[in-house]
Amino acid sequence: MHRTHYIKDAKQARGKVQIAGWVHDFRDLGKLKFVLVRDITGIMQVTMKKGATDDALLAAVKLNKEDVVSFEGELKENKIAPDGVELMPTRFEHLSKVERKLPVDPTGVVPSEIDTRLDNRFIDLRRKETTLIFKAKAIAASAFREKLHELGFLEIQTSAITGAATEGGADVFSLQYFENKAYLVQSPQLYKQLAVIGGFDRVMMTVPVFRAEKHNTTAHLNEITQMDIEMGFADHKDVMDVLEKTVLHMLHRVKEQLGDEIAAKFGPVVVPSKVPRYSYTELVKKLHASGFEMKHGWDFTKDAERKLHELLGDELYFIYDWPTEVRAFYSMPDEKEPSICHAFDLMYRGMEISSGAKRIHQASLLEEQLRKRGLDPADFEFYLNAFRMGAPPHAGWSVGLERFTMKLCNQENIRECMLFPRDRTRLLP
């Protein structure tokens, strides 16, 4: 072992400790040397000076920034050291040397363009800001599972490959699957519905999905992580309740564990007491009254979403009861007003992070909705057939994990929130 403690834990320890990490900074003053060692939990100052440190050890420590090292020694209080503690070493290992100029400065003193950082993501991950984003993302994903397990949802795993490109919405990536043509899934929509029809009742999942849209925006990726649920014997209001509880729990967990760090770097984590709900029609009227051009039946543009955030002032809010024609064919129309369907979006800091709906569970109504959109039900036979064998009323939603993290950490570009993002041009690293 090269360490007995992570740095955060070592600062609370007593007696001899061994730490390991990267050289964040190094100052050689001859008879006095300072090394700032960094691991994922923090930074510790290692201090060596003539007379207090073994001469051979003092002479051996010759370092460059980002060399990988291990130090063993005794802790000592020092008010001017990070967190008031420094390590007086008795043993040193030089585990790896930096052999070429670093393309990205992990300290952040010298800024780099995002594409340079993404080309060298393994270096960029050493930046405190980048590390913090992915810590927050990990806590959010864990809290998603935690809350839904508490609410009685069964976690399932679905395939990323499908033989039919009929899930609707975006373009799909095709691939050769032995002798057949196949596609990367755009959504686990079909599979989670089949699980509910199969009797699982409440299911949840975290899955990668792929969309072959040729966009170049700061809010889209061609591979994303979706967090989904589907709930049997439920309507849109039931799953909106579940979504509200889940997202507030995710925010609570992030604030509880990283709130101070995120506030210092990106701004405060706000956890509302509740999530207000507005009908589509109500918000169209608000936009129109403010002088913003918006007609009933239009989808909300990014500018419209930002304007609504400005008008409402809510961190989170729902938009429900959308025009049927602008939502997916499987969204359940209202019985009394079929031009309105029971679909909804969840907005977070002016951006859609989740969408969902009560689903149509009658095959005949699904066929009708397909025909209204100029689609041939025969192309959806594999999907429709499941609804002819006893499908319960059900509803569900999905949350984009990268979008959630993007807004949580107040990032301008969603690529900051995917470890190795895939966009229209980026396939490496």
Short description:
The protein is built from twelve helices and 16 strands.
Biggest sheet: strands side by side, in what order? 6-10-11-16-15-14-13-12
State the CATH topology of the largest domain: BirA Bifunctional Protein, domain 2
Extract low-pLDDT stretches: none
- Name of the CATH superfamily of the largest domain: Bira Bifunctional Protein, Domain 2
- Looking at the overall shape, the CATH architecture of the largest domain is 2-Layer Sandwich
Give the DSSP E fraction (strand runs of 2 or more residues): 25-35%
Cα gyration radius (Å): 26 Å
Report the strand count: 16
Secondary structure class reads: alpha+beta
**What is the distance, rounded to the nearest whole angstrom, between the alpha carbons of the first and last residues?**
30 Å
- Sheet of most strands: 8 strands, mixed
- Which sequence of SSEs, written as H and E, runs from N to C? HEEEHEEHHHEEEEHEEHEHHEEEHHEH
Number of domains: 2
What best-fitting shape do the alpha-carbon axes yield?
Answer: elongated
**Name of the level-1 CATH class of the largest domain:** Alpha Beta
Question: What tags apply to this protein structure?
Answer:
12 helices, 16 strands, OB fold (Dihydrolipoamide Acetyltransferase, E2P), alpha+beta, BirA Bifunctional Protein, domain 2, 429 residues, 5-stranded mixed barrel, 2 domains
Q: Would you mind describing this structure in some detail?
A:
- With 429 residues, the protein is of the alpha+beta class.
- It folds into two domains: 7-96, OB fold (Dihydrolipoamide Acetyltransferase, E2P), CATH 2.40.50; 128-276 and 314-417, 2-Layer Sandwich (BirA Bifunctional Protein, domain 2).
- It has twelve helices and 16 strands.
- Strands 6-10-11-16-15-14-13-12 form an eight-stranded mixed beta sheet, with helices on both faces. A five-stranded mixed β-barrel has the order 1-2-3-5-4.
- Strand 1 (16-28) and strand 2 (32-39) form a beta hairpin.
- The longest helix is centred in the middle third of the chain and has 30 residues, at 236-265.
- The protein starts with 6 loop residues before the first helix and ends in a 21-residue tail after the last helix.
- The model has no long low-confidence stretch (mean pLDDT 95).
